[in-house]
Every structure is written in structure tokens, then in C-alpha cells.
Automatic annotation (TrEMBL):
MF annotations from Gene Ontology: transferase activity
Domain of life of the organism encoding this protein: Bacteria
Organism expressing this protein natively: Luteibacter yeojuensis
Name assigned to this protein: Glycosyltransferase family 39 protein
Transmembrane region(s): 70-89, 119-137, 144-164, 176-203, 215-235, 301-320, 327-346, 352-371, 383-402
Amino acid sequence: MMYWKEAWAARLAWMLPLGVFLGLVLVHSDLPGVYMDAVNPDFLAAQWLHRGHNPGAGIPSKIFPILGSFYHGLQNAYLGLPFFAVTGFSVTSLRLEQAVFGLILLAALYQLTRRLTGAHGLALATGIGLATELAFTASFRTQFYIVLGGAAWLVVSMLLALPAEGGSWIVRRRVFWSGVFFGLASYGYFVLAFFAPAMAILVACWIPRRDWGRWVAGAVVGVSPFLLGFLSLLAKKHGVEPTLEFVRGMLGQLKPFDASGASGNNLQYAWALLGLATSDAANEAMIFGQGLPGAWGAMKAWWLVAAVAGLVAIGIVLVCRRQPQATMMILPGLMPISFVAVASLFGHRLWAHHFSVLLPFVYLLPALLAAKLAELARLPARPVPMAVVVALALAVIGGNLVQQARFHEWLAKTGGRGRSSDALTTLALEARGVPANVAYLFPEWGFFTSFAFLTGNRVRYSVDIEPATIAKLEKDGITEFRLVYWNAADEGRYRQALQANGIQSLEARTFPSREGQPVFHWLRGGLGGHP
């Protein structure tokens, strides 16, 4: 009877990190406000469910929408179709939909850690550590979420690269599916492809040579939506030249490789981004306009560096001793090296949200290092003594929860600041009840995606104030306009532009933050004596 209970406890332990993570996602789930990129491409689900004349986003397609941009796909939008059809459109439903990928990542990370270390306790500590990591949970409140959505498939790919065990869900064509999920990770967000050099080494060591071709074939299938998306764009634009013109217009002055290679300056910049991503300072800057002081978060980048250095050093020693098979567990230590090396080629074209994909390794690699050191030291019984695991896990989780408490205190006090203020939610919720003759005008970046999502795409809006646009809206029965903008200093020029389009009786309004600071403004006016 006791064995049966222990077996079931071990089987269900992977669910505990998922529950912890979901609980932290739901705390103040309606905060902060939804920044424009924090709901792109999810807002497209609202436009697909409730079609209208509102402007959208994404790459044009001849068949069906495939690419959200030239650097990410539409997996969140397609997940959102059934999800939002059931839950409706709210900030909380958005958090939950985006958190699905966090749940997948945590489940795969638990199983990967367990398989590599052979220790349920160490896998549980790793899972709960990441589940309570503020840099991880807060990423599902900002634009960082889309990068971690791709990271979920990366961890699944690594797990499937290991041989199947008894009770595995995927046994047949396991190698092929490992490749598919790696390609899908790159479709989720292009920076996941930066792991390819290390993943190639991992595949070469974990998978028999006769199956390498299957893994490559799977990776091609997984990333094929990118190719399909470009072919569909080519068909939509009716030729190569119009397509190239569109691509040039979309990319503008990005010049992603104009960064002089992996120079010392670029490596220094990559280190700074790693610190911003793993400490949560980047998410806090997005939400509050500043990082919250604290040494705990700043330690995380050093954890990762120490774990990578330790695993690489052990690997070198084992190879010198001609024990290559003993290096199987430590190969994931190459993944952050691969990512940083490739990312350095892009230099300042990247920012901290791209480096958030390294968060799972902040917890995975120390666990692998601890297990390997225990194995080399020939500690008795379990791979890592349970008392040590529990003590370290409690210390880490305690530090994480203290950091979480401070973050949520600021969240409740401010509601988010700047372009992450919950005043954006107020704008959309008020708009849900407006008459059909009202349209919102968003000539500035930062408004329309969250507005389209939170109103279920049922309220008319436009993203410019050109005379032709105003004339078209008037033809469709719009008589009242509400132009929304960020800075009060721009009121004069917007007032003049509206009046030039025949919109009169203009009234100004300011939307404040919870702290009483102005966040954005609108000018409201009408045509033909409206209102």
C-alpha cells in the first residue's frame, strides 16, 4: 500500500509546479494594463471571431493567416480562437491563454530534469523554482510571453530527444517529433533557432546516427510554416518585386546583421541583456518604468554562468578521461553558450525579452550540476541527498516569493505605468457600451491591439486620421470620433487635424493612472452637429 502511494505521488508531482505557476498568474491577473505588443498576435483571435472593418496586423497571406510578422508565427492567435470563444475577452482570459505555454514548459522541464538526473525531488525543486521565478511569471504580463511560448517547444524537443521510457506518451517516431518541436519553437519566435548549434551536438550524442535524418526532417516540418508563410505572401502580392517591396517596407532600417559580428562590445551587451531578463528588471521597466531594487534577482545570471562553467569543466575532464558516455547529462549546459554566441551576431538589434528564453536553464542547469557532482562524489543512496535538495529548494523558493510579494505590492499600488497602465483597460471597458455611430482613432502606437481584444473587435476604430479614412467612416454611419493620444503637448495638432476633417465641438479628456498621473488623452467630437 505504501509503495502504491509513493508511486502515485511521484507520478503526480509534476502537477505541483503547474499549480503554483497558475496561482501566481491569477494574483492581480487584471494588472497591469495590456501593452500593445503584449497582446499581439492574440488580438487577431478577436478579429477572426467577430469580423468587421477594423485594421489588423500580421503578414498578408493568400490562403489563411500564417505569420504574425517576419520573426514570429501565430500560435497564440490560433490557441486563442477556441479559448476566447469560451472565456470571452478580458485581461484575465488573456493571461490564462498565454499561460498555457508556461504550463507546457513547466511540465516538460520537470520530466526533462527527472530523466537526466533520475531524481523526482530534484525535478520537483527545479519545476517549483521556475514556477515561482518572478522573471518567468511576470513575462506573461508583458510582451515577453511570446518568446517563452517558443521556449516551451524547445524544452519538449529536448525531452523527446531522450529515449522513450515505460509509460511515455510518444514512443513511435519520437526522434522525428523532437525535430518537429524544435522547428515549431523557431516558428514560435525566431530567436529559438539560436539554440541550433548546441541542439545539433545534443542530437548527435543522444540520438543514434541512423535517426539523425529523421530529426532533421522533423525540424524542417516544424519550421515549414515560415516558408509556407512567405510563399503565401508571394502569391498574395502577385510577384517577387511587390513582395520584396513589402518586405523592405516592413523591415525598414532594422538591418539585423549590421552589428559587426560577435565583438567584445556585443558580448558585453548580451551580458547586460541576460541580467535584465533573469533579474526581472526588464519586465519591471516595461510595467513600472523602472526596475525594483533587490540583490536576489541580480544573482540569477551568475547562477546560470556558474552552472554552465561547472558543467563544461566536468565535461572536459570526462572527455580527457575517455568517458564520453558520462557527459550525456551535462550537454544541456551548451545551450546557453549557443544562444549567446549567435545572439551576439545581432548586437543591439536584440533586447532583453529575447534573452528570457534562457530562464528555464537558470534552474535546469544547477540541478544537473548538483546531480553530476553527487554522482562523481559517489554519495550513497539517492543521486542527491534529499535533505540538501529540500534545504536549497526552500531557500530559493523563499527568495523568489519575497521578490514576488514586492512586485505585486507595486502592481496593486500603481496598476502599471505608462503604456502598461490599467487606464488602457478602462478605455476599452468604457467603449464596450458605445453606440454604433462612434469610432475611435489611434494614430499613435500602443493602443489598438489591446482595444481590439478587450472590446472583442465589436467597436469601430482606425489607426490613422487621413481625410479618406474619415470620409469612409462617415459613409459607414460614424458621426462621433474619439482620437486617443499619449502626450498632452500633441493636443493642438490633433485638434487642428480633426477640425480640418469637419469634426467639431471637440472635448478633451485625460485618463489618469491609479497614482493620479496623466497616462493618455482623447479629443471627442462629431460631424454634422453631433455629439
